[in-house]
Each structure stands twice: as C-alpha cells, then as structure tokens.
Amino acid sequence: MVIHAAPAPEEQAVPPCIIDWSDSIARAEHDLEHDVIVTVIGASPLAPVPAVAGVLAANLDVDPSSLVLRRASSSSYLLMLPDLSSVTRLVNLKQPLCSPEFSLLCKKWSRLAGATGKVLPCQVDVEICGIPAHVWETSTVEQLLNPHAWIDHVHETTVELNDLSSFRCSAWCLDVSKVPPSKELWVAEPPNVILEDPPVKRFLSYPTSFKTSVVSPSCGLAPNLPPPPPHEDGSDEDPSTRQRWRLSASAPPRSHHQMIVGCVNAAGGGDISASQARGGQPT
Predict the structure, then answer these.
(1) DSSP 159-179
(2) What's the sign of the alpha-carbon dihedral 158, 161, 163, 165?
(3) Would you call 80 exposed, middle or buried from its count of C-beta atoms within 10 A (0-12, 13-18, 19+)?
(4) N or C: which end of the chain has fewer CB within 10 A?
(5) Can you give the pLDDT at residue 219?
(6) Per the structure, how many domains does the chain have?
(7) For residues 37 and 175, which has the higher predicted lDDT (pLDDT)?
(8) Range of the domain at 262
(9) Which pTM does this prediction carry?
(10) Residue 61: left if φ>0, alpha if ψ -120 to 50, beta else—which one?
(11) Residue 49 maps to a domain
C-alpha cells in the first residue's frame, strides 16, 4: 500500500465517501485472515472456477471441490481456506503457480491491497443549530456533515444533554471552506397507510445552520507517510502490526459514541439522543 497526502481542495472534484471503523469491520478483517487473493495471469476473460480450483488443488494436494472461490475482480478470485496453515502453505509456494493455460499469483488478503493512504488534515469545532428533538442524535450530525467532515468526538456540553439548542462536536475535514453555513435536514414521515397515486415519499424539512472554528489549521498537503514493510509470508502487513493497528484504530473513530454511552447509559449501547435526556433508553 502506498500512502499519499490528501489532494489539495481544488483537486478533490468529488468528495470522498468516508466509512467509519467499526467492530463489524474488525470482525470481517479477522475472518479474512484465512483468505487468499488469487490473481489469474494470461487468461482473458477470467479463467473459470473449476480450472483455477484444479491448479490450486494440485499444488495443495487437496480435492478441488473442497476449495471455495469467489470472484473478486475481473482478474482475480478470493480463495477461502480453512486455516492459517493452509494460507501460509499456499503463499509460500513458488509464485506464480503455472498451468498450460494461465498462471496464478497467490497473496494473503490484506485491506492494504489496492488502497492508498489518505489523511484529513483540518480539525474544526462544529456547532449545528436547528436539529429537531426527535432526531437529535449523533448519527443525524454524521449525515449532516457528510461528505464535508468526519466526527472525531462530541463535546462534553452536548454529551451532558442539558442544552439541545445546538450540537457541538470536533471533526476532521479536507477543507473547512467546504463545510456549508447551512443545510436542509429532510426527515422521512412515517409510512402512510393510504396509498397515494402517483406514489410519493414524504419528508419534513428543517433548516439547520453551521458554525465552524479551526482547531488545527494544517489544511495544506500532509507529509507523505511510508507504507508498512511487507511481511515475510508474502502479505503486505505484519500480523502483530495489523493487530496493533486494529486496536488503536478501532477506538478513536467511535470515541464519541463510547463517551456518550459511558456518560448517559453505561449499561446500554447506541446513539446519543434527546430521548435519553428524559431518562429514556437509547434506541
């Protein structure tokens, strides 16, 4: 994986889609530790599953029908193996694995494959006014800020749920000037038991306003960061490093949720909401 600085604002024609790190992503990555990316070389269109499975089975000395292959791209498959020893055995074979029709290049699955590192260099404090009480939640603010900024944490004054006139949080963005001064919040109405002709989807629109103040003004290009060194087993990342990254990366993105749960309802999970200010349970 090559890590680059985020592009300058003028180069960022289409805002990125930012997905928060979550426990489900961590579980998925853990499950994929038994998987191998098999790139097919010299076959267009992509060689069929039985042919690829036959070559792999011959090298692993297993029954081809025991191999589970899923198409991953126009030139590769995702091979699901039962254990890490099988993965290590396969990737340690002399690569590529050759057949008369095509060759196979086998590497451990890694989230770094096909990715480039990016950073959000600008940290800002955000205050949003006008959020109605029935949707006064962190998830609402996440959608209001998307795709302009990503929440780092919710301010303590908001966590305490004493003042619902504004929602205060700290967020990261590429360019603070792209955060709009106002935005309409459309909230879907409950399903109508009477069908309309023609059918429509009804919403209520609420005006919201944004105030931002820069915390870290480093909104230019960030310095290039070196990629992690490849691991001896052929993967792009050392397992111990991957585990450290998982533990360190899983906490900060969800810190605003964890802080809220700890302050409002230590026994439950979920989002901060106005209903909790009345002593209700999180939904």
Answers:
(1) HTTS--SEEEEEEEES-GGGS
(2) positive
(3) middle
(4) C
(5) 60
(6) 2
(7) 37
(8) 117-219+253-277
(9) 0.65
(10) left
(11) yes
Contact 3, 227 (CB under 8 A): yes
Q: Which of 108, 137, 166 is the last residue of a domain?
A: 108
Q: What would the mean pLDDT of 62-84 be, rounded to a whole number?
A: 95
Question: Which tokens is 66 given?
Answer: 């025991």
Residue 272 and residue 159 share a domain: yes
pLDDT band per the 50, 70, 90 thresholds, residue 264: very low
Residues 272 and 169: beta-carbon distance below 8 Å? no
Give me 3's structure tokens. 């890590």
| Cα–Cα distance, 80 to 37 (Å, whole number) | 9
The pLDDT confidence band at residue 14, using thresholds 50, 70 and 90, is confident
Q: Which two tokens stand for residue 85?
A: 């020893």
- Interatomic CA distance for residues 170 and 153, integer angstroms: 5
Residue listed under structure tokens 């579980």 = 27
Token pair recorded at residue 234:
């052929």
In the numeric block, the tokens 């006008």 are attached to: 130
User: Residue 43 and residue 55: Cα distance in Å, rounded?
Assistant: 14
Strand partners, 40: 104
